[in-house]
Protein: Amidohydrolase-related domain-containing protein
Organism: Alishewanella longhuensis
Amino acid sequence: MKTLLIYLILLLSFPSSASSFVLNNVLLPDFETRQLTPVNVEIANGKIKQIVDVHINLHHLDTRDGQGKVMMPALLDMHSHSMGNSSLDRSDYQYIGIRGTANAMLYAGVHGWLDLYSKEKAILRYRERQFPLQRDEAFVFAAGPCFTAPKGHCDTGDTRLISSPEQAINELRDLSKAKPNVVKIVFDTPSKRPTVDKPTLKAFLSEAKRLNIKSVVHVGSWEDVRVATEFGANAVTHLPWQKMPDDLPLLMKQQGTAFIPTVAIIAELLFLHNPSPEELSASVLSIPMTGALVKEKLLKDYPVMERHKNHYDWLAKLKAENAFSEMENALLKLDQAGVDILVGSDAANFAMFQGVGFHREMFFLQKMGMSPWDIVAGATHKAYQFLDLDWGLAVGAPAHFTLQNKTIFDDLSQSTQVSDIYLYGRKVHREPLLRYAKPGFFQYTKLFLGFEK
């Protein structure tokens, strides 16, 4: 009797179990033919039950009109940090924690994100709880700690420091008990800070492969990309702004190494560097979603003007070196070679706000010349493959999707104008998500005291 009562309570607490309806007149994207197909879709118990031609009538007590919008498969941000949003001079920080990030992502129409370094126990414990089964929030997939050399990049506490191949193997084996979705290591030779040496990197990547855990390498130069690729990295992250060697795209394609470029960090700051009215109106500051998710006081620290001397001078130097053009050339060559380009914002950094940053990454990838079809494929099916997820708009898959304007595959700047968000087939009510995504005093106090639930 007690067991039956518990089962009934759990059943009633999972709204996904009752999400059954018909959604007529939507456009289904086919990434092979690059066509939008008009269909009707039936959702049952939080999953896709059937997809039929738009001329075949589906009947249900709950029948909804998709109004010819695109039924977009769930979007995944493949590089973020579950912390919050930063002002430019770091004098102000909007800390929102893991749950706040989960709410901000879903509010923005992003169904999940790959956290590539947060507090190890907190992020992995939160991931284990699988809260989207119970309530409206995005899925978190996590690396846990960042593996780096002592005093190296991301040695800010609560990470894993390694100085030898033996340490790399032992630390990785210990972490593997928590079953991280991926593991991340820093190999950044141009940095003024220490980084792991080649033998340590090689041992780390070999052990990750033996343990069957995908690896992501933070890099700082094209030579770092080459070494990580040759040593068997599953992905590298961050696109250098120097000229790329001509042979690298083919090498990465042959090795099956994916790229998470995070171009929007530099591109947005270049946009915001002493901007023209046109640049300002096309920047993250002019997007309604930004104002909804980021507190006004923090946004007032942007754009980048002469009062931000260090950032201002650094960006002026990048402009003089034609950094954007070099990034653009490299990205297009990688894409043309067939390297998998995954979409990651590196949110929690300057001007990369949680949820919104993902859309800005897609915007700048298109601005650099990538096809919207390739970009969305990298944000959906290629991301699913990397994380071993059985997602997508197919019969039997969980009904995670958004509805977008039908011109989305012409202009990805429209992606922030998401109209409806579905999680396990239940329509998400967006406004309540702001309680955690943009916390007031009470919620912030709970976060400060360490309450994430």
Q: What stands out?
A: The domain at 2-73+394-428 is CATH 2.30.40.10 (Urease, subunit C; domain 1). Confidence is low (pLDDT under 50) at residues 1-17.
